[in-house]
Amino acid sequence: MQDTYKFKIQSTYFSLRPSEQKVAEFVLKNTEDVSKLTITELSGRVNVSQPTIIRFVKAMGFNGYREFKDAIIMEIGNNKSKKQELLYGFELNKDDLIDNIPAKTIGTTIEILEETLKSISIDSFEEAVNMIIKAKRIDIYGVENSMSVVSDLVNKLIYLGLNIRYYTDNYMQNVCASNLDKDDLAIAISYSGTSKNTVDAIRNAKSCGSKTLVITNFEDTIINEYADVSIYSSNSKATIYGSAIFSRSSQIAIVDMLYMGVILSDYDKYSKILDKNSIISEDRSY
């Protein structure tokens, strides 16, 4: 997967210049057209200069436009050889067939994860990992659908031996937030970025001098006003009757990224801690 042109674009998208992002968006949405366009024609279609396109393909790791086009053509051929194509997008109505739900669900999840990869700033991700490993104490806040993601992050960080506090009660979340200081870290997880209880908790933590990390879906929301660092899961909406049913997929992926980032920050230290904790749980399995 890492060798595909699509993966390369998505994994570097956030670091591209705005003009190069225009090229990236056009390529992702018009792949077959791009495979037939010369660099002059692509320049005209996207309304950017040819040097911009050259910078873009080199940022993807290709030596030139010809090599980039060859990769696209090869991937188009590989995709056409697949027998089953996943259905992207999820609009559920009463006439849908139950047979289509597995493909729709997996297809939508894949699409959202790809959007998430485009939304991740490597600088923000690295800073988030540094904040976690340097914190004396870590509070984690969330409500409703986000609680499953909060619980997963709590479990992973506890297994790494970090000092974590986590309450499902919103009142206790705010009490904890009010007792943090500059050596602590508060993490808030909210798909919408507007959940009042979560916003109140992270605001309280910020006012006490704590460092703050927010995991949310949208950039222009109130919760980001109180974040030292924000990580965005994507800007896609996939809802059924108002419920963001796929939000957990991208947020869980971010939790896994943070978990692996912490381990890599001091592999020997954290692998020993994980080995020790795995012994504790050995007698709980058949």
Automatic annotation (TrEMBL):
Q: Which Gene3D superfamilies match?
A: Glucose-6-phosphate isomerase like protein, domain 1, Winged helix-like DNA-binding domain superfamily/Winged helix DNA-binding domain
Recall the GO molecular function terms of this protein's record.
Answer: carbohydrate derivative binding; DNA binding; DNA-binding transcription factor activity
Q: Where is the HTH rpiR-type domain?
A: 3-79
Pfam families, alphabetized? HTH_6, SIS
All copies of the SIS domain together span 128-268
SUPFAM superfamilies named among the record's database cross-references: Homeodomain-like (SSF46689), SIS domain (SSF53697)
Task: Supply the InterPro entries for this chain.
Answer: Homeodomain-like_sf, HTH_RpiR, RpiR-like, RpiR-like_SIS, SIS_dom, SIS_dom_sf, WH-like_DNA-bd_sf
Query: Which PROSITE patterns does the entry mention?
Result: HTH_RPIR, SIS
For biological process, the GO terms are: carbohydrate derivative metabolic process
Q: What is this protein called?
A: MurR/RpiR family transcriptional regulator
Tell me what organism the protein belongs to: Romboutsia weinsteinii
